[in-house]
Amino acid sequence: MEVHVIQPILKEAIFGVRTRSHLLHQAVVMQLANRRAGTAATKSKGFVRGGGKKPWRQKGTGRARAGSIRSPIWVGGGTTFGPQPRDYSYRMPRKARREALLSALSLKNRDGKLIIVDKFELEEAKTKIMCKALAELNVSSALIAIAQADEKIERSARNLPKVKVLRVEGLNVYDLMRHEHLILTEGALKLLEERLAA
How far is residue 83's CA from residue 11's CA, in Å, rounded to a whole number? Predict the structure, then answer.
């Protein structure tokens, strides 16, 4: 497979904006928060099995009063203020998300880490072929953005820990920052410019 790097004229409004590091940070934190399962759970004294009977009478024993053997201060008791299932997800304003993506794209372009190829097609879904194609581009860590789903490319890259394939609509700040290079096909570039056109 031969990969031909092209150098089209890029839109300044998408690939030439100033980097807003605070928005990049917010976008990454938001994505990581949205991935959290939030399923950690502990049982309070009301949910621990047993403890229905009062251990001893209120007065006259000389011991401290006790209402349940499942009190948090007893061994085998409930947990006080333990984690409960919760939703950590939240959303940044749409304009802020867009600006963060533009910042990430512009940063890649400014650092010379943006590679645009005429097409990215593999004869068959083999990791070896993908490695060879990336070696031709002198790339080890890359996010490959394609115009539409391509099973050969996706399957070829799936065993490579530093390579990820995404369709243009799935392009996000977290993956852009995680990978050193961004590889765009000509078709993907057109779609991206249409999507981000102001």
Answer: 48
Cα–Cα distance, 44 to 32 (Å, whole number)? 29
Tokens read off for 104: 């990430």
Give the 3-state secondary structure of 119-143.
CCCCCCCCHHHHHHHHHHCCCCCEE
Q: Tell me if the pTM is above 0.85.
A: no
Structurally, what CATH architecture does the domain formed by 12-20+91-195 represent? Answer: 3-Layer(aba) Sandwich (3.40)
pLDDT reading at 1 higher than 70: no
Q: Give start-end residues of each CATH 3.40.1370.10 domain in the chain.
A: 12-20+91-195
At a CB cut-off of 8 Å and minimum separation 6, what does 57 contact?
A: none
CB 55 within 8 A of CB 66: yes
Question: What integer pLDDT is reported at residue 12 of this predicted model?
Answer: 87
